[in-house]
Write a structure and sequence with these properties.
alpha+beta
Length: 153
């Protein structure tokens, strides 16, 4: 039985190449679905080019995630990458459904109100990351066709 929790990425950290730069000692463990949660956006007024990705509980939805085996020192590095964003995020533990059974994972959630639109550039980054992580085509298409603003282009 695994004692250390894994990291579930639903945002740009789904991209294995990006994660290799940010957390070089954290191999991709696999992928899965965060059942009972929905991808959404919030924090539009914080100063970035649109709203930021987060997840909220929703019994009828699910979110694709890339799962990484992250040691403590790389977790610290990920926190540093978040920088000032960490003030806006907190970590929670969730269960992720994988082909090998449920996995206990941690992830970042936005500590702000839901609402607002992400920029087209940000949505492109998220869709590219999901595609690189092996998300199903319909999930990637859903990201590419979500409403967004033209800010940040």
């Amino acid at each position: 039985m695994r004692i250390v929790a894994l990291y579930a990425a639903y945002d740009s950290n789904m991209d294995p190449e990006q994660m290799a730069q940010r957390a070089p000692h954290s191999p991709l463990h696999g992928t899965g679905w965060l059942q009972g949660w929905r991808l959404t956006f919030g924090g539009q007024d914080v100063g970035w080019d649109g709203a930021l990705a987060t997840v909220v509980e929703d019994a009828d939805e699910h979110v694709f995630v890339a799962i990484y085996d992250v040691p403590d020192w790389d977790e610290h590095e990920l926190d540093l990458w978040r920088g000032n964003e960490l003030v806006l995020h907190h970590k929670i533990r969730v269960r992720v459904e994988t082909l090998d059974g449920d996995a206990l994972c941690w992830l970042y959630v936005l500590d702000d109100y839901e609402g607002g639109l992400p920029s087209a550039r940000y949505m492109g980054i998220l869709a590219d990351a999901a595609e690189k992580a092996g998300a199903p085509d319909d999930y990637v298409k859903g990201l590419r066709t979500r409403p967004c603003t033209s800010l940040g282009e």
